[in-house]
């Protein structure tokens, strides 16, 4: 398991950094930022929604794929589109976009339910679909927001620090883990792993802050320690979905990791808080 995690984790990071490099180069040549990264995050919603649909099906629920995928992509890309309007109206455009779009999505979900399934299981199916859209679409929009509003350096800082907490938690948990902090939801997680992840991420955050001009070193250390815990809560949230569905992984696409949801669970929950935290230093 550890061998596969190291191999495929390194490969995924290499691909991600390559795409971010391409994203930066294209942004320099164009008048808008983040096209490649926005496309990457948006397209990940497709396999992720299939995974959510499979988890829901285990409980007799249905995630309606068309509104789920379309809604997730529309929400995930929210911070990208204001670049195409005049600067003086970008803030109003974004506010309108992120308030009107969820309303439109709710209507689309009810329409899909009515046209294809009638009234049977309306509450269950619509709730599962809307949860899936908010979880994958709305939460990931803040990952795109980090890239668009705060720049490539802020995005890389957040990603590297967050993933370092996963590495620290996994390593310390394997070596020292004895006391489980959530035995019913995620038996593999321990207080020792959580503490190790927080300490390791704080060190990485402190170190990385020396290479960026928007964050003091103490701010980087605080980010690492706090968001290591928030990232673990994101992991627990996905574990709750899997436990309820009675499966170990959301899928088996990637050896050592599982599915897309198993990879993005921590960043999804941490992204809105990371956006808020870093905005205090950048604005």
UniProtKB/TrEMBL annotation:
The chain crosses the membrane at residues 32-50, 62-81, 93-111, 123-144, 150-172, 193-212, 218-237, 257-278. Belongs to the CDS family. Keywords: Cell membrane, Lipid biosynthesis, Lipid metabolism, Membrane, Nucleotidyltransferase, Phospholipid biosynthesis, Phospholipid metabolism, Transferase, Transmembrane, Transmembrane helix. One of its GO terms (biological process) is CDP-diacylglycerol biosynthetic process. One of its GO terms (cellular component) is plasma membrane. Pathway: Phospholipid metabolism; CDP-diacylglycerol biosynthesis; CDP-diacylglycerol from sn-glycerol 3-phosphate: step 3/3; Lipid metabolism. This is Phosphatidate cytidylyltransferase. The keyword Cell membrane applies. Its EC number is 2.7.7.41. The gene is cdsA. It is a multi-pass membrane protein. The keyword Glycoprotein does not apply. Coiled coil: none annotated. It comes from Limihaloglobus sulfuriphilus. It catalyses: a 1,2-diacyl-sn-glycero-3-phosphate + CTP + H(+) = a CDP-1,2-diacyl-sn-glycerol + diphosphate. Its main location: membrane. It comes from the Bacteria. Signal peptide: none annotated. One of its GO terms (molecular function) is phosphatidate cytidylyltransferase activity.
